Amino acid sequence: MKNSKADALSQWHNPANAPAQSEPILPPSVVEPDTAWTSRQLPTGLLEPWPIPHRPWSHMAVDFITDFPSSSGFNMILVATNQFSKACQLVPLKGLPTAMDMAMTLFNQVFRTYGLPEDIVSDSGSQFTSLVLESILDSPGNQY
To answer: Most buried among 34, 49, 62, 82, using CB within 10 Å?
Structure first.
């Protein structure tokens, strides 16, 4: 038994038997770019590389891991990452902290052990950009 659909498709896709196309498949507005078109993206800026740390915990990154099932009342983790060795300090939290709670947690769990960093990278959440944290870190040579 002959497969007429397969024969028809093979004839169509065979370049020797394909009909000549005088018109493009796409309309001209798609083929030729519109000169009035403008990008909706903001112009890109120059990337600035992170400074190379000269000692452990001099440069760190902080962020939260959220939405864990509650375990002894804890459902979040504060992650403080050392940019020198990529080691991290994990601090369990019982919810999203206020700016004062965040500053005290960083001070008691990270800064007390490793010292004040010169630089902290975060996602610019209100807990990380507060005046409370700035005042704790406000010492000569520190930037945040």
So the answer is: 62
Residue 119 β-bridge partners: 59
Q: List the 119-121 sheet strands across, edge first.
A: 88-93, 76-82, 59-65, 119-121
How far apart, in Å, do the first and last CA atoms of the chain sit?
A: 77
d(CA 123, CA 94): 20
Q: Is residue 110 part of a domain?
A: yes
The fraction of the chain above a pLDDT of 70, given in percent, is 58
- Over its C-alpha atoms, the chain yields an Rg (Å, rounded) of 29
Residue 68's domain comprises 59-137
Q: Are 86 and 18 in contact (CB under 8 A)?
A: no
* Residue at 111: amino acid letter: F
Tell me, yes or no, whether 67 lies in a domain. Answer: yes
The string of pLDDT tens digits covering residues 45-61 is 777 787 788 899 999 99
